[in-house]
């Protein structure tokens, strides 16, 4: 069982990569109820994989990289679908792309891979906002409240950008990647 434990977090993370094209297809074909159900489960894997990796002490750089890639692919794919229905999601997409570019820049230029608590919180809020965006497509009156979540998400993303910039500016160049898991 111990050998299996070291693979479970990465399997959960990889499931987001596998299911991303499926939920994007569901969104493109207007199967929002199924998409919402699957997206909730997939979003929960983001919480569970990291928690299990820390609990079982099997945190790895591969798992951290897969986690970021899975989060970004899922979020960006679903945001593109939502932009078609609600243009306010465009701001969330642009800010998420800026955060992604910043992370890549500092990873390749400084050798730093940072995972700050604000970034994890921001990811959860984005997933919640995306799911609520699709709920608004199923329940039309609810769409009036979705914009509130969109703007709160955008504000949190701006705060995240600032926190990452401050952290990364204060951190000297690293020869080896410094993975800080929270």
Describe this structure in words.
The protein has 182 residues and is mainly alpha-helical. It has a single domain, classed as CDP-alcohol phosphotransferase transmembrane (TM) domain (Four Helix Bundle (Hemerythrin (Met), subunit A)), CATH 1.20.120. The chain contains 7 helices and 2 strands, in the order αααααβααβ. Strands 1-2 form a two-stranded parallel sheet. α2 runs antiparallel to α3 and α2 runs parallel beside α4. It is globular.
SS strand fraction: under 5%
Overall residue-averaged pLDDT value: 87
Q: How many helices in DSSP terms?
A: 7
Q: Report the CATH superfamily.
A: CDP-alcohol phosphotransferase transmembrane (TM) domain
Concise synopsis of the structure shown:
The protein is mainly alpha-helical.
């Amino acid at each position: 069982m111990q050998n299996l434990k070291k693979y479970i977090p990465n399997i959960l993370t990889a499931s987001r990569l596998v299911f991303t094209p499926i939920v994007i297809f569901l969104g493109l074909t207007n199967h929002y109820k199924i998409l919402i159900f699957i997206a909730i489960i997939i979003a929960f894997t983001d919480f569970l994989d990291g928690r299990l990796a820390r609990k079982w002490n099997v945190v790895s750089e591969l798992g951290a990289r897969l986690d970021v890639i899975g989060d970004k692919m899922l979020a960006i794919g679903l945001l593109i679908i939502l932009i078609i229905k609600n243009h306010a999601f465009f701001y969330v997409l642009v800010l998420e792309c800026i955060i992604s570019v910043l992370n890549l820049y500092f990873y390749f230029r400084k050798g730093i891979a940072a995972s700050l608590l604000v970034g994890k919180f921001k990811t959860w809020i984005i997933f919640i906002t995306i799911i609520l965006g699709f709920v608004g497509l199923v329940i039309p009156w609810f769409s009036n409240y979705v914009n509130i979540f969109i703007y709160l998400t955008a504000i949190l993303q701006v705060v995240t950008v600032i926190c990452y910039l401050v952290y990364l500016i204060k951190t000297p160049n690293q020869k080896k990647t410094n993975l800080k898991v929270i």
